[in-house]
Specification:
By secondary structure, the chain is mainly α. The chain contains 28 helices and ten strands. The protein is 48% helix and 4% strand.
Length: 694
């Protein structure tokens, strides 16, 4: 163990084991503001580079300036075959079809790459792919936490809301606002109202153990998870560390923590009905339903008046003489209301109207879908510090507020005049002036495209996280994000069009491996493994089995537990149920994001179980057979053409000479049998070129 880490570790141990209150020094907020991530975003001068021809953008100039300073030259451009596959996988999570390859390779225009990128950016597949990145950091799942792992049948609405948001290219800061305070934002349409309510499901989707019998502790645990998630996902801060004591490393005090706690204790996010559960509310009425309901209410009022009038007229009839002559005279008398109808007709009319009135009174509201969301408690209030995090050991009361270290004259803390303070918190986090949010989000986008962030600890921009490899570039990207209206699409486009992103993963300065073995300066592209979803979706697409239906419930109506549930859906992986305790086999094997935590960067493993899965899984065998059945590998006079087609279909490239020779030898030895063809497909699924982005 690194000796420099022993001090903090021992200090934490002491805090846990001591029986006497510890007196902590006040957090030095002013000194904390000097740390790089808390500094305001700065517009840095674009570097001047020696090689004027190489850069295509300012991104390239920032990177090239660092390379030239180290006497490193960038790798050559990737081949068009490699580049198309890289672009398509990065933007959609699936490889290009042979038709897309042919169209791209045939387009020799200067805008061929740009046109291909724009087409992909505007596709539903892009929205689904990049929504999945977002779901990783908001710890989305279809079951709750704890040993029970209760099904959340309405969670899919939040997932579909996120996909729709990326389809619309909703500004990322607006997405954050809606996540935290969507129920408090104004809306201009019914659809917007539903979307904003659904967005707040973010706060109740966490891995909470609703079976906890200590409801006060449960409430604090729920709030703690909400604060921790918001801190890591949007601010790159480990705020939750301050629940029991001032943060050991970052300028976050316990008072800061409980200032935020007051906001979320003033928020209704759990319902207690003997057994705690997440908060839901029925769908609001649509304008058409509101109009129908208003008409029905008006009809009830009218009917009530008409019934009363009929009863009065009937009573007047009963008080008249029985003589026929008098009745006839009365009926013929001008202006006589009583005489306008016979008693029998009045009784019939009364009976009819009373029946309609009863039907309207007894009419039940149709069952309405539920939205997982939050609301405001009746009397929002500040809360007390819990000494050492103990729920019933109270300290001083702390006004609801925000992290002091991020407030400054340029970004003052908003005042909470009424309500929980969630709206003020949402606006504070999503502000253009917040130095953390834009940096964190820009870094996340960069990481998804390059395989490594400028800050390698994407969920921790604090003092224990990694320093940025290119701080000026990170600020440049963060400012670009803000200037382009917090658009994911525009920043992705800017990065993908850069020459740096389009480099080959091999070549360049031979000394690069010695001078920069970790490729921190980005002198070449990084080879990176495709994730579990891309692996599954790509295989389904290539076999022709992919169900392109979009959205809808993840769980069947009769779902009880995740442990005996068999996933049979062939929809894209983002629509497959995300279980907290038992992910699907392919997801657990290939490092799916753990939905119990904020996962800004997935763990990447290389294990024998992965190779065994690709060799033996029934799913792989079934899909390989379906690919083999396609008219790609049929026995024909043009055997080389068949091999060419299958390599392009699966790997997005032509086979090398030795690959062509060995593949032909294998197929001919088995007379192009179905077993041999399926075996070849499995081999291609298992090879490095399929599993990695080059």
């Amino acid at each position: 163990m690194n000796p420099t880490r022993l001090g903090p570790i021992l200090a934490n141990i002491a805090l846990v084991t001591t029986t006497t209150p510890m007196v902590m020094a006040d957090v030095d907020v002013e000194a904390g503001r000097q740390f790089w991530s808390f500094q305001p975003l700065a517009e840095h001068a674009i570097p001047v580079v020696d090689d004027k021809a190489w850069p295509r953008s300012n991104i390239d100039r920032f990177l090239l300036a660092r390379l030239e300073a180290r006497k490193l030259s960038p790798a050559p451009d990737a081949t068009r075959e490699t580049l198309l596959r890289r672009i398509t996988l990065a933007l959609t999570g699936m490889p290009p079809s042979i038709a897309e390859q042919d169209a791209f390779l045939a387009d020799k225009s200067a805008r061929a790459i740009e046109s291909a990128i724009d087409t992909l950016l505007n596709s539903d597949a892009f929205a689904e792919r990049w929504a999945r990145h977002w779901l990783d950091i908001v710890r989305y799942a279809d079951t709750s936490g704890g040993s029970g792992a209760h099904p959340m049948p309405d969670a899919w609405r939040f997932r579909d809301y996120v996909i729709d948001s990326f389809r619309q290219d909703k500004p990322l800061n607006e997405l954050i606002r809606e996540h935290i305070a969507g129920d408090l934002l104004p809306f201009s349409s019914y659809e917007q109202q539903i979307a904003q309510l659904t967005a707040t499901g973010f706060l109740v989707l966490g891995p909470h153990n609703y079976g906890d019998q200590d409801k006060e502790l449960l409430a604090l645990d729920i709030v703690d998870e909400q604060i921790d998630t918001i801190g890591k996902a949007f601010l790159g801060m480990t705020i939750g560390c301050a629940r029991c004591h001032d943060h050991k490393f970052d300028p976050v005090s316990t008072k800061d923590y409980y200032a935020l706690t007051g906001i979320f204790l003033s928020t209704k996010s759990a319902a207690d009905a003997g057994f705690a559960k997440w908060f839901t509310r029925p769908y609001p009425l649509s304008p058409a339903e509101e109009s129908e309901r208003a008409s029905e209410k008006a009809r009830v009022v009218t009917l009530k008046a008409e019934i009363a009038d009929l009863k009065l007229r009937i009573n007047m009839h009963s008080e008249k003489p029985d003589s026929a002559s008098e009745a006839g005279a009365a009926e013929s008398s001008p202006g006589n209301v009583v005489g306008q109808s016979s008693p029998e007709r009045l009784q019939d009319e009364l009976k009819k109207k009373e029946g309609i009135y009863k039907e309207l009174q007894e009419k039940k509201e149709p069952a309405r879908p539920s939205i997982m969301c939050v609301g405001e408690i009746d009397q929002p209030k500040d809360t007390q510090v819990r000494v050492h995090g103990l729920p019933r050991k109270m300290g001083e009361t702390v006004p609801r507020g925000f992290l002091q270290v991020v407030t400054s004259p340029g970004m003052p803390a908003p005042k909470i005049d009424r309500g929980s303070g969630r709206l003020e918190l949402a606006n504070w986090i999503a502000s253009d002036k917040n130095p953390l949010t834009a940096r964190v989000l820009a870094n996340r986008i960069w990481q998804h495209l390059f395989g490594q962030g400028i800050v390698r600890s994407p969920d921790n921009f604090g003092t224990t996280g990694n320093l940025p490899t290119h701080p000026e570039l990170l600020d440049h990207l963060a400012l670009l994000l803000i200037q382009n209206g917090w658009s994911t699409r525009k920043l992705v486009r800017e990065i993908v069009l850069s020459r740096a992103w389009q480099m080959a993963s091999e070549g360049g300065n031979p000394s690069g491996a010695k001078l920069d073995p970790e490729n921190e300066l980005l002198w070449r592209a990084r080879k990176r493994r495709i994730d579990a979803e891309s692996l599954r979706d790509s295989i389904l697409m290539l076999s022709g089995s992919l169900n392109t239906e979009r959205g809808g419930p993840s769980l069947p109506p009769d779902f009880k537990t995740e442990f005996d549930f068999e996933i049979t859906s062939l929809k894209r992986s983002i629509y497959i149920p995300a279980f907290r305790n038992r992910p699907d086999e392919i997801f657990s094997t290939f490092d799916f994001a753990n939905p119990n935590f904020v996962v800004g960067k997935r763990f990447e493993s290389t294990l024998p179980t992965q190779a065994l899965y690709l060799m033996n899984s029934p799913f792989i065998h079934e899909q390989s057979s379906k690919v083999a059945e396609k008219q790609l590998l049929e026995k024909s006079a043009d055997a080389k053409g068949a091999v060419l087609r299958i390599y392009r279909h699966i790997l997005g490239r032509t086979p090398k000479d030795d690959e062509m020779c060995l593949t032909l030898q294998f197929l001919r030895s088995a007379d192009f049998s179905s077993e041999a063809r399926a075996g070849l497909v499995r081999s291609l699924f298992s090879c490095v070129d399929f599993q990695y982005i080059h």
